[in-house]
Specification:
By secondary structure, the protein is an alpha/beta fold. It has helices spanning 5-9, 30-45, 59-68, 86-97, 106-122, 140-149, 169-174, 180-183, 197-211, 214-227, 242-256, and strands spanning 48-53, 75-80, 127-132, 160-166, 186-192. Strand 3, helix 6 (140-149) and strand 4 (160-166) form a beta-alpha-beta unit. 27% of the residues are buried.
């Protein structure tokens, strides 16, 4: 497939920074690796975990990387992209993902979901991994239902691993007194911080060979210079090339040496 006109203009093979990057090609910075490790811990221990971060910090990308490494014959992934479906919707999603038709009465639906979760481990020897994205949108009643679902064998085990992904408001919500019972069940929590200038430069340098765009190399170089110098970009930066701006930026630092 031919590259888009704007990609060809800048010497790129495809549009950079899209969402279709394979999990194996994702940029693995320290925060990303830590989030993946926390998710893997929850999967192995059938525990609850919370991953938070600002918009665009890489929360869902970390989940993609962790899930991509799981053996699908031994794990059943249930991914909830939008939890705004009420308490009944939580049970319906679980039941349908496990291959059954949801029952009409909620009392029967709750029992059906619990039986199916238990059967996945006991009969199919598969671990259910329930991932709820945008978890900061969960209503209090949904959070309480989620806690009750983790009860297994008189609260000695959990029938699934649960990962809550959301914005920083999720942490504050879970620490409210009304959610104390759920909060104490959370085995691990981690907040993904945005990339700093050094990580941004490394990311661009990593992307440049894949896209064959020399401007990415120049921009990465500029960001690296910016990290190691405190000079401000002078007026008119937009009218100059990145390499020219980089030369201006490191000039005072070189004279000082």
């Amino acid at each position: 497939m031919a590259a888009a006109p704007w990609a060809s203009h800048y010497g790129l093979k495809r549009t950079p920074f899209g969402k279709t990057i394979p999990a194996k090609d994702l940029y693995t910075r320290q925060a990303h690796s830590e989030a993946v490790a926390r998710i893997n811990f929850c999967v192995v221990e059938s525990a609850l975990g919370v991953i938070t971060g600002d918009v665009g910090a890489g929360k869902t990308v970390s989940v993609r990387a962790a899930v991509d490494a799981l053996d699908r014959t031994r794990h059943q992934i249930i991914y909830i992209a939008n939890p705004a479906f009420g308490t009944r919707g939580l049970y319906v999603t679980i039941v349908r993902a496990l291959g059954a038709e949801p029952r009409y009465l909620k009392a029967e639906l709750m029992a059906q979901a619990a039986d199916l979760l238990a059967a996945e481990a006991a009969e199919r020897h598969r671990r259910v991994v329930l991932i709820c994205d945008e978890a900061h949108l969960l209503a209090p009643a949904q959070l309480e239902e989620l806690r009750l679902l983790t009860n297994g064998d008189m609260d000695s085990t959990s029938p699934f691993a649960g990962i809550l992904i959301g914005q920083p408001t999720l942490n504050r919500q879970l620490r409210m007194g009304v959610f104390a019972a759920l909060d104490q069940r959370i085995a691990t929590r981690f907040t993904i911080k945005p990339m700093d200038i050094g990580e941004s430069a490394a990311y661009l340098a990593l992307m440049s060979p894949a896209f064959s765009g020399q401007w990415l190399v120049k921009l990465a170089t500029l960001l690296t210079f910016r990290q190691h110098s405190r000079c401000a970009l002078q007026p008119g930066f937009g009218s100059r090339s990145p390499s020219e701006a980089a030369s201006d930026c490191i000039g005072p630092r070189s004279n000082a040496q």
